[in-house]
Amino acid sequence: MRAKMSADSLAALVRTIPDFPKPGIQFRDITTLLADAAGLAELVERMAAAARPLDPAFIAGIEARGFILGAALAHALGVGFVPVRKKGKLPGKTVGIDYVLEYGTDRLELHEGQIPDGARVVLVDDLIATGGTALAAAQLIREQGATVLMALFAIDLPDLGGMAALEADGVASAAIIAFEGH
């Protein structure tokens, strides 16, 4: 049996890259945690423990690292996985939502009809910062008639207010690890 890791041990597996993508930003790179077998297993177990009581039918993962965690979580829970993609990445008919970024706009899309009306969904991504992308993804899922039970993240940057923005929009949210600052 594998020994349980602490949240601090998980946080220690996240690499911090200073001044990326611009000066003053402390980029939290989760790929180092993903590459650690014990760390990845612990992270997915903790995410599953948070999502399991909600009894979701689907995990929706936000491009791109949300695909990795979302697919692993869907497998752990025995539910379906739905990718939330950037514009133009999905073949076939899609539904989408435009949203505002710090410098411009972007668009998220789902395959039309992939999330059925009334479905219970947990939204997953690797990190929550300001919350703009997660808010847009939650809105897109709601527009399909589904319920967003929770937005679940590996990492929260609480100083940037993303989880508070989700909560203010009526989306419960949780993160496994938190880092102060940007």
| Amount of helix | 25-40%
Shape: globular
- As for the CATH topology of the domain at 54-178, it is Rossmann fold
Ranges where pLDDT stays below 50 over 5 or more residues in a row are none
Distance between the termini: 36 Å
Specify the CATH architecture of the domain at 54-178: 3-Layer(aba) Sandwich
Question: Which CATH first-tier class of the domain at 54-178 would you pick?
Answer: Alpha Beta
Arithmetic mean of pLDDT: 95
* Tally of DSSP helical segments: 6
Radius of gyration, rounded? Answer: 16 Å
Strands, total number: 9
Structural class: alpha/beta
- Note the run of SSEs as H and E: HEEHHEHEEEEHEHE
Residue fraction in strands: 25-35%
Protein name: Adenine phosphoribosyltransferase
Organism: Sphingobium indicum (strain DSM 16413 / CCM 7287 / MTCC 6362 / UT26 / NBRC 101211 / UT26S) (Sphingobium japonicum)
GO molecular function: adenine binding; adenine phosphoribosyltransferase activity; AMP binding
Function: Catalyzes a salvage reaction resulting in the formation of AMP, that is energically less costly than de novo synthesis.
